Amino acid sequence: MRPTTGSLLGSETADAAVSEGLNPMEIFDMREFDDHELVVFGSDAATGLHAIIAVHSTALGPAAGGCRVWPYATTAEAVADVLRLSRGMSYKNALAGLAFGGGKAVIIGESRKVKTPELLEAFGRFVDSLGGRYVTAEDVGTTVADMAHVRRATRYVAGLGAAPGQAGGDPGPKTALGVYLGIKAAVKFRLGKADLEGVTVAVQGAGGVGYHLCRLLACEGADLAVADVRPAALQRVCEEFGARSVPVEEVLALDVDVLAPCALGGVLNVRSIPQLRARIVAGAANNQLAQGQDGAALQAAGILFAPDYVINAGGIISVAREYQGGATEAQVTADIQAIPIRLIEIFERARRENRPPNAVADEMARERLGHHPRQPHQPQKLVA
Questions:
Q1: Can you list the positions of beta strands (E) in 213-357?
Q2: Which domain holds residue 72?
Q3: Number of folded domains in the chain?
Q4: For the chain: N or C, fewer Cβ within 10 A?
Q5: Of these residues, 92, 104, 115, 174, which one is catalytic?
Q6: Sign of the CA dihedral 231, 234, 237, 239?
Q7: 381 catalytic, yes or no?
């Protein structure tokens, strides 16, 4: 394992960035950089690992966020993504009231091709080299089983298997629960409906979160239209929940009450927003807005946007409670019940101030982070 540091650690900065094909000053100048505390590059020749860990803030505690495996076309693309995701985790954890900062990791490669137990253990050693400043878990392209391999090399990992009734395990269903509750809150706020019976919802992505979201929505009588690039995943939700399949290229423009992006980020942009016909956008994907100003474009179009890092916090709430130890699944569920309350607070403030909800949420998160100046890092006490 060869960890190299790409930010804020003096003389190693240049060597690290150059070794990964980037000029370090380009990283500092990137729009996504946003005063990150740390950006670290790790490689392991024996396993083929090429990974990046970004720590945006440890003002509230050790940085927590999942590990994504994705075939980025360039290292620069991977850096931009990990920076966006890491900052989003700072805001997510802050507004969820968690004693964690924000961080994220990416492994460059096709998940089905690069993942091996050896590579995941090498990634675990990479995480461990930061001494608890970053805590990892599942994200796109990783699973509970993958985290078990990571755990062999570091204790700074969550999203592991859990005993019945205890906090932990796959965070996907908990993310879906929070999104479901958030959709209900948005529907009540925007449409004046107290339930989801007959509400039309277009779900983009039927993976680890989208599948569970479809189940919850279908149980309450929502009318589902679903798109996914994987035929098997799409067929599963159509057969189990009576969803209607739609082409991936058409899902964003459907005339529905709710659009729920549950795949990758950046889907709401200058090209897609003029095509939207949904009244509400509320989904599980991270970084749904390509640019911050896209929230204003949604507001101008009369579309209520549920800030993604607020509505999708159920997974990290579960991960945090598991990592800290001692919590039950019922306590995690109770914590997730606060997500719609936070959303309504944001919606009401946005309406009063005539501002986009994402701008209000960003301000609230920055306020909480600003009230907790950065402290020297001390790892949290772990449960063995």
A1: 223-227, 244-245, 258-261, 280-281, 304-305
A2: 2-91+101-151
A3: 2
A4: C
A5: 104
A6: negative
A7: no
